[in-house]
């Protein structure tokens, strides 16, 4: 097992990464009070709920559960309220802990519920998708969707501890595994060429779910995110680098309708567009661009998106949160392994980068 710390002063917390982790032993020091609410969904609960419930009961905790329907479309205020119902019906007090057992949807909802219930109770993350292990469980952003916008209502809420168990990835659907790998590749492209070389050497093993390789990929990804978050918790600057591929990706997701393509798949093609524009700007070479596409393809991710009319594409990009004072800022690559946030790019070249990477 490897341990990583997210350095946030007195809110510093550990991420435990490994296989067949022992929740009883690892969670015990981080649970304040006697009451634990496990929030999960109806896909993950049948697989893993009993394991955690038993471990917590062995620690003498009063365990209650709230099982939500599976899906991004339930990441809304109605279903958030079901968590509050469960907490109140169980008679939980301000000393309780909310434990998220699931992917990013459950992590975001349970985290937000824990930030609001009684003005804030303790929170623990047990992410069960690769994406949530390398991305959403680190950094403290939590929230729900509104019918007028994704992730529009939320709070910063740091967990006490994160438990990332590679064994649980064995049941993850192939597409979800690849979607998580998109965010892993993102860390390499934006800040770590050595990691890119490592991914190039180990991609087949990752796809085959070698747990040791997965643990290494999660560790290195979380280390990047943890460092960036520690420097810039509230996204005033550097944290925006984590949006590499995301402005293009959001346009793809929005046009196709959420649910059609997975987030990671859209980000994958978005990263190709960002790399393509960086190459057109003369910052990275054609070989670098080819290398970017190759590693994304090897992760079984798409490198082109369906035909999307340019006006629609640009319209969705303009709606992205990264637009500051009406000016689009993009995360682009100065080199492979070094991203920058910039307004200084040629819009015509950006349009070409979008158009050539469509089917
Ligand atoms: N807070 C953040 O910083 C942050 C960052 C990135 C993404 N997110 C959010 O995370 C969400 C996406 O997360 P996700 O990709 O984990 O999706 P998800 O939570 O919907 O999980 C994907 C699917 O895998 C299933 N699943 C989860 N673990 C499983 C397992 N071990 N075995 C079998 N099936 C399993 C889920 O039930 C679901 O059907 C989005 O809502 C996004 O907004 C948040
Ligand atoms: Zn993402």
UniProtKB/TrEMBL annotation:
<comment type="function">
    <text>Catalyzes the conversion of 3-deoxy-D-arabino-heptulosonate 7-phosphate (DAHP) to dehydroquinate (DHQ).</text>
</comment>
<feature type="binding site">
    <location>
        <position position="263"/>
    </location>
    <ligand>
        <name>Zn(2+)</name>
    </ligand>
</feature>
<feature type="binding site">
    <location>
        <position position="183"/>
    </location>
    <ligand>
        <name>Zn(2+)</name>
    </ligand>
</feature>
<dbReference type="GO" id="GO:0008652">
    <property type="term" value="P:amino acid biosynthetic process"/>
</dbReference>
<dbReference type="InterPro" id="IPR030963">
    <property type="entry name" value="DHQ_synth_fam"/>
</dbReference>
<dbReference type="InterPro" id="IPR050071">
    <property type="entry name" value="Dehydroquinate_synthase"/>
</dbReference>
<keyword id="KW-0520">NAD</keyword>
<keyword id="KW-0862">Zinc</keyword>
<dbReference type="Pfam" id="PF24621">
    <property type="entry name" value="DHQS_C"/>
</dbReference>
<feature type="binding site">
    <location>
        <begin position="104"/>
        <end position="108"/>
    </location>
    <ligand>
        <name>NAD(+)</name>
    </ligand>
</feature>
<dbReference type="InterPro" id="IPR030960">
    <property type="entry name" value="DHQS/DOIS_N"/>
</dbReference>
<keyword id="KW-0963">Cytoplasm</keyword>
<feature type="binding site">
    <location>
        <begin position="128"/>
        <end position="129"/>
    </location>
    <ligand>
        <name>NAD(+)</name>
    </ligand>
</feature>
<dbReference type="InterPro" id="IPR056179">
    <property type="entry name" value="DHQS_C"/>
</dbReference>
<feature type="domain" description="3-dehydroquinate synthase C-terminal">
    <location>
        <begin position="180"/>
        <end position="323"/>
    </location>
</feature>
<feature type="binding site">
    <location>
        <position position="246"/>
    </location>
    <ligand>
        <name>Zn(2+)</name>
    </ligand>
</feature>
<dbReference type="GO" id="GO:0005737">
    <property type="term" value="C:cytoplasm"/>
</dbReference>
<dbReference type="GO" id="GO:0009423">
    <property type="term" value="P:chorismate biosynthetic process"/>
</dbReference>
<dbReference type="Pfam" id="PF01761">
    <property type="entry name" value="DHQ_synthase"/>
</dbReference>
<dbReference type="GO" id="GO:0046872">
    <property type="term" value="F:metal ion binding"/>
</dbReference>
<keyword id="KW-0170">Cobalt</keyword>
<feature type="binding site">
    <location>
        <begin position="70"/>
        <end position="75"/>
    </location>
    <ligand>
        <name>NAD(+)</name>
    </ligand>
</feature>
<keyword id="KW-0479">Metal-binding</keyword>
<dbReference type="InterPro" id="IPR016037">
    <property type="entry name" value="DHQ_synth_AroB"/>
</dbReference>
<dbReference type="GO" id="GO:0003856">
    <property type="term" value="F:3-dehydroquinate synthase activity"/>
</dbReference>
<keyword id="KW-0456">Lyase</keyword>
<keyword id="KW-0547">Nucleotide-binding</keyword>
<feature type="binding site">
    <location>
        <position position="141"/>
    </location>
    <ligand>
        <name>NAD(+)</name>
    </ligand>
</feature>
<dbReference type="GO" id="GO:0000166">
    <property type="term" value="F:nucleotide binding"/>
</dbReference>
<dbReference type="GO" id="GO:0009073">
    <property type="term" value="P:aromatic amino acid family biosynthetic process"/>
</dbReference>
<feature type="binding site">
    <location>
        <position position="150"/>
    </location>
    <ligand>
        <name>NAD(+)</name>
    </ligand>
</feature>
<keyword id="KW-0057">Aromatic amino acid biosynthesis</keyword>
<feature type="domain" description="3-dehydroquinate synthase N-terminal">
    <location>
        <begin position="66"/>
        <end position="178"/>
    </location>
</feature>
<keyword id="KW-0028">Amino-acid biosynthesis</keyword>
<comment type="similarity">
    <text>Belongs to the sugar phosphate cyclases superfamily. Dehydroquinate synthase family.</text>
</comment>
<comment type="pathway">
    <text>Metabolic intermediate biosynthesis; chorismate biosynthesis; chorismate from D-erythrose 4-phosphate and phosphoenolpyruvate: step 2/7.</text>
</comment>
<protein>
    <recommendedName>
        <fullName>3-dehydroquinate synthase</fullName>
        <ecNumber>4.2.3.4</ecNumber>
    </recommendedName>
</protein>
């Amino acid at each position: 097992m490897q341990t990583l710390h997210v350095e946030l002063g007195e809110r510093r917390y550990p991420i435990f990464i490994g296989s067949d982790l022992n929740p009883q032993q690892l969670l015990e020091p981080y649970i304040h009070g006697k009451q634990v609410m496990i929030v999960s969904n109806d896909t993950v609960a049948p697989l893993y709920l009993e394991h955690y419930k038993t471990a917590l009961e062995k620690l003498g905790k009063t365990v209650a559960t709230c099982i939500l329907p599976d899906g991004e479309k339930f990441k809304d205020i109605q279903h958030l309220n079901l968590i509050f119902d469960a907490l109140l019906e169980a008679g939980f007090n301000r000393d309780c802990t909310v434990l998220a057992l699931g992917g990013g949807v459950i992590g975001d909802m349970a985290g937000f519920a824990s930030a609001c219930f009684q003005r804030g109770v303790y929170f623990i993350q047990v992410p069960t998708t690769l994406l949530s292990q390398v991305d959403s469980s680190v950094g403290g952003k939590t929230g729900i969707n509104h019918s007028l916008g994704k992730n529009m209502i939320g709070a910063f809420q740091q967990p006490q501890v994160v438990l990332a168990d590679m064994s649980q990835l064995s049941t993850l659907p192939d597409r979800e595994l690849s979607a998580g790998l998109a965010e892993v590749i993102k860390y390499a492209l934006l800040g770590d060429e050595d990691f890119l070389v490592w991914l190039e050497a180990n991609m087949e093993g990752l796809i085959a779910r070698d747990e040791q390789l997965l643990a290494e990929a999660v560790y290195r990804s979380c280390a990047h995110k943890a460092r960036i978050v520690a420097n810039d918790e509230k996204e005033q600057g550097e944290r925006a680098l984590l949006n590499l591929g995301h402005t293009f990706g959001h346009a793809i997701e929005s046009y196709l309708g959420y649910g059609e393509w997975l987030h990671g798949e859209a980000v994958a093609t978005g990263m190709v567009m960002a790399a393509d524009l960086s190459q057109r700007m003369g910052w990275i070479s054609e070989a670098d661009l080819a290398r970017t596409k190759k590693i994304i393809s090897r992760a079984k991710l798409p490198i082109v998106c369906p035909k999307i009319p340019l006006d629609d594409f640009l319209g969705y990009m303009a709606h992205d949160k990264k637009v500051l004072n009406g000016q689009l800022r993009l995360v682009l690559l100065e080199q492979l392994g070094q991203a920058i946030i910039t307004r200084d790019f040629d819009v015509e070249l950006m349009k070409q980068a979008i158009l050539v990477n469509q089917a």
